[in-house]
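Hello,

Our lab assistant flagged a job as stuck in the queue for most of the afternoon. It eventually completed. Since we weren't sure the result was trustworthy after the delay, we are filing this so someone can double-check. Below is the sequence as submitted and the structure that was eventually returned. Let us know if re-running is recommended.
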Amino acid sequence: MLSFRQLVCFILSLLSFLSVFYSVGKLGVFLATPVIRQRDFRHVLLTTLLDDRGLLKATLFSLCFNSVWIVLFVIQHSAMKADVVKRFWRKLGLEMAERSVYNIGSAYCLLIMLKNWKTTQSYQLWYVDVESSPVLWWTFVSAHIVSWVVIYGGSLLMDLPELIGLKQIYYDVNDLAPPMSYKSRELRSFYGRLRHPSFVGLSVVLWITNSMSLDRLLLAIIWSSYMYLSWNTNKTDLEYQKYQLGRKKVELTNVQE
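-- returned structure --
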C-alpha cells in the first residue's frame, strides 16, 4: 500500500512523463516543420536592415519578447539543479520527487515559450525553397527525425526511467536506495557534467532548417551556447566511455561465439 507521500510523488512522476513527451514532441514539430513562404511574404535582406524602421522595430520587439521565454527556460533548467533546491526537497522528505518536479518545470517553460513564440520571417540568413521539391522537404525532415531518434536512444542508454523520475518512485516503494546510489562513481561524475544525450543531435535540430530567420537564429545561438557552457565533460569522462564501449564489444563478441 502506497503512503500519501509516495502517492503524491507517483502522481508527479506520471505528470513528468506525460509533460516531457508532450513538450518535446511539440518542440520537435516546431523545429522540424519546413517554412513555406506566404504569397504576400516580403523578404528583406539583412544588408537593408535599417531601410524599414517600422519593420525593424517589430522585429526587435519579437526578438526581445522571445528572449524572455528562452532565458526563462535556461534559468529554470539551471536553477532547479542547484544544491540548495535539492536540499529543500530533502528537508520536505520528497527528494524522490525532485527529478519529476524539475522535468515538469522544464516542460511547462518550454510549452510557454512555444505558445508565445513570435516569428520574424522577414529577415533571414538563408532560405531554401522546399515547396516545389519533395526531396528537399524530406531531406530536412529526415535529418530531424534521425536526430531525435539518436537523442531518444541516448536517453535510453542513460537510463530514461531515472531521467523522467519514474525509477526513483519504484525504488522508494520497494525500500531501495535512490537509483543514482547504485551507479558507479565514474558514472555519477559523468552524469553530473552531462545529463542530456547527443550534443550533435540537439545541434542538428537547432541549426538544420530551410529558413534561418532571426528568431530561429536567436534560439539556436542561446541554446547552443548554453549546451556548450553547461556540458563540461573532461578527459576522464572520455576514458570512461571508451572503457565501457570496450566492455560492451567484448560482451557482444562472447554472445556471438
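-- support follow-up --
The delay was a queue issue, not a problem with the job. The result is valid. The chain has eleven helices and two strands. Residues 4-255 form one domain.
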